[in-house]
């Protein structure tokens, strides 16, 4: 059979639609989905013929075409975004959505979002209210700021602050703080988009107070200090503290904007981690505006918070860009609940998942490991399963050099490759995302949520061993 005959052997769409298997499929799925699946599967056959597929294989593919169409339809009809179990050991895994919200937060959100709410309505006055009113007071209460507002993310927060306060003017920044974060987000590029002019001072490793003093002039719109949360410069270094920059700003009438990046409300040194500047410390030191992420060390929804002096926040609220960057009702509600949780630090460590992961004792993780290994005994014929020490990390551009001692379960396949085993986990009904080494799968338990751990054993048995419970 030559190539043209192979092409002609592909059934036409009308013929496929008349097959009983496809008729059954149309009872369960929309016709548009089924037709798209037919088109994609027949196109795949044409491509394989063009690549030189053998006649015997082609006949087999045509015979199995109804089954392929069903699988394709089911896959297209399934939800694209799914809940996954994070067993990578990276707490703020950007590709897995960064900070998960707690069960208590989600129950409250479900109640709010399945009905109407007073998002922009003042129940006391009976008139239109402000969207940020619900969380602003909590941000101010927990940080010491006079006022606050929230936008889509921290990049948007920095962009809005620079646009509203420094467009057409110079912004003074240390050369050692010209950062780039994920997705090629660079401070100089944000500066350009804001309409401000970049004025670099100092050197990569040393920037003194005098460097800023020389640079501040009549056309200075702001002094920008950026916390380098995703890298460190060590050795012969010097940077200028916020308190000293604040003295220049106050003397010259220039706002000092601090981009904290990850942004924490807790003193992490209490938990054996290096001290990160907190939002409240930065405001107390005299920063006029502090920008930080809500979905990193704070443990909330994706948003960028801008907190600080009332007169500067007011200018941001009135800026036309604010409407384009404003948060939705889901984020507004989640922010209020996140900041409320910090009223008692010990409760925050329990109620906010990422704080809970960071502070989990190693003894708890060891208990989880032994319990899980016991549940996985039926997989003993297919995998060598062991409990090992591991090191988790923060991720998300936060605490780049810090690691958390952890416990992991490792799987060394006996009858398949590590790549095949990883695919089984990733493509299961409840995907499990793990680390992969050359010869084993590594499931780090520090990042497995408590509610996910309850089903993890069953998920692993089903995905890795095909064992239904």
Walkthrough of the structure:
The protein is an alpha/beta fold and about 475 residues long. The protein has 21 helices and 16 strands. The protein has helices at about 5-10, 15-20, 20-30, 30-50, 55-65, 65-75, 105-115, 135-145, 155-165, 185-195, 210-215, 240-250, 280-285, 310-320, 320-325, 330-340, 345-350, 355-360, 360-375, 420-425, 450-465; strands spanning about 85, 120, 125-130, 145-150, 170-175, 180, 185, 195-200, 220-225, 255-260, 290-295, 305-310, 385-395, 400-415, 430-435, 440-445. α7 runs antiparallel to α16, α17 crosses α18 and α19 runs parallel beside α21.
- Radius of gyration (CA) equals 28 Å
Structural class determined from secondary elements: alpha/beta
Percent of residues in beta strands: 15-25%
Number of helices: 21
Largest sheet: 7 strands, mixed
Arithmetic mean pLDDT: 90
Estimate the helix proportion, in percent: 40-55%
Which overall shape is indicated by the principal axes computed on the Cα atoms?
globular
Distance between the termini: 48 Å
Unreliable runs, pLDDT <50, ≥5 residues? none
Q: Tell me the strand order in the biggest sheet.
A: 4-12-11-10-9-5-8
Number of strands: 16
Name some characteristics of this structure.
469 residues, alpha/beta, 45% helix, globular, L-seryl-tRNA(Sec) selenium transferase, PyrdxlP-dep_Trfase, EC 2.9.1.1, L-seryl-tRNA(Sec) selenium transferase activity
Describe, in short, the structure shown:
The protein is an alpha/beta fold and 469 residues long.
